[in-house]
């Protein structure tokens, strides 16, 4: 009887979690349950690199999401596929194959933990790392990107099942189609491709998301505002750029995502300039990556201001890199920027009462 009651309790909690409204977009803002929502975010990109379908550690994600919740963080950007050796696999002919059952099981577990701790997930499904020529499987991805039929296969066998699986989960908030795709153009190590290769891939994935009438949003993690606005080299991910190459009106981003690091100060920065300065005020705009170490900004900034200044300027979210110290370099962890996130979260709650 006790076991039966425990199951009923779990079922009720599960149903309640997924009966909530999803994040919506109104103009250039996110809205949740009828109220404006600012994404007090972070990046928790990976634990063991290609975790899902790989060396997934459920306890890590439980502990990490608990820390985020404790620090007032409501969202995280997670790489569910890190490079060409992750899921889904692509063979030598450039043909993608369905993700493994273990991949889906691991992802289900992570999403259950995200829901438990009220963490909205931006799921990154690829990166410039997929074309890293030091890794053998990168050639397979290059072959796929050179063929629209094979890109469509990728959309059919991976993206559509992903959308179908999580369309009713309000915590599966958005899909980041590619992390910093600009490096595939800028560096030979990552392909040295013409822009149209990644524009076609990003555009076709976005069109698939929208053609499925999915409530899940499409975005792309641009390495710098240099490539995401018309002030410099032109917005490579604009509606016009993506729709011209795909010939599909459904190829567009639901919200802008720019990344900031000190080197991008040459183009100014989103802690001093509002989205309108870049011409990105037509839909929500988030800072998808920014250092979690305030000593490497190139200007004085407190940990609370990492969130507060963009909020005051009209951005829709900020995601420091990284909560768990993943990656190379001292960019901070939840221990550095967490107190600032918590302080800003309390301030935001107070102001919204």
Which characteristics define this entry?
353 residues, eight-stranded parallel sheet, disordered N terminus, three-stranded antiparallel sheet, alpha/beta, 11 helices, 15% strand, TIM Barrel
Offer a concise description of the structure.
The protein has helices at residues 2-18, 58-70, 101-116, 138-145, 148-166, 183-186, 195-211, 239-246, 275-278, 303-313, 334-351, and strands spanning 24-26, 29-32, 35-37, 39-43, 75-79, 120-124, 172-179, 217-221, 256-259, 285-291, 317-321. With 353 residues, it is α/β, with parallel strands linked by helices. Helix 3 links the parallel strand 5 (75-79) and strand 6.
Description:
The chain is of the alpha/beta class and 353 residues long. It has one domain (39-351): Glycosidases (TIM Barrel, Alpha-Beta Barrel). The chain has eleven helices and eleven strands. It has an eight-stranded parallel beta sheet, with helices on one face. Strands 1-2-3 form a three-stranded antiparallel beta sheet, with no helix packed on it. The N and C termini lie far apart (43 Å). The model is unreliable at 1-17 (pLDDT under 50).
């Amino acid at each position: 009887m006790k076991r039966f009651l425990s199951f009923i309790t779990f079922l009720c909690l599960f149903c309640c979690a997924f009966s909530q409204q999803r994040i919506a977009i109104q103009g250039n803002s996110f809205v949740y349950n009828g109220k404006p929502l600012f994404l007090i975010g972070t990046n928790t990109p990976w634990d063991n690199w290609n975790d899902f379908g790989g060396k997934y550690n459920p306890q890590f994600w439980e502990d990490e999401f608990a820390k985020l919740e404790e620090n007032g963080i409501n969202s995280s950007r997670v790489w569910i596929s890190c490079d060409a050796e992750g899921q889904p696999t692509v063979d030598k002919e450039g043909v993608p194959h369905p993700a493994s059952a273990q991949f889906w099981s691991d992802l289900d577990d992570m999403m259950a933990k995200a829901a438990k701790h009220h963490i909205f997930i931006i799921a990154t499904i690829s990166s410039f790392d997929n074309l890293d020529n030091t890794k053998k499987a990168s050639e397979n991805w290059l072959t796929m990107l050179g063929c629209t039929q094979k890109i469509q296969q990728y959309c059919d066998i991976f993206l559509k099942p992903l959308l179908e699986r999580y369309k009713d989960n309000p915590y599966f908030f958005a899909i980041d189609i590619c992390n910093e795709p600009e490096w595939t153009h800028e560096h030979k190590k990552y392909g040295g491709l013409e822009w149209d290769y990644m524009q076609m891939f990003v555009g076709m994935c976005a069109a698939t998301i929208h053609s499925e009438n999915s409530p899940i949003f499409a975005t792309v993690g641009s390495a710098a505002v240099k490539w995401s606005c018309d002030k410099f080299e032109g917005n490579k991910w604009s509606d016009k750029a993506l729709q011209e190459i795909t010939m599909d009106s459904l190829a567009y981003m639901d919200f802008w995502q720019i990344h900031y690091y000190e080197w991008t100060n040459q183009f100014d920065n989103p802690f001093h300039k509002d989205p309108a300065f870049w011409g990105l005020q037509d839909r929500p705009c988030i800072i998808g990556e920014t250092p979690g170490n305030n000593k490497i900004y190139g200007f004085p900034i407190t940990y609370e201001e990492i969130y507060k200044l963009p909020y005051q300027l009209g951005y829709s979210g900020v995601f420091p890199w990284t909560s768990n110290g993943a990656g190379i370099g001292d960019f901070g962890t939840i221990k550095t920027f967490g107190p600032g996130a918590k302080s800003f979260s309390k301030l935001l709650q107070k102001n919204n009462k």
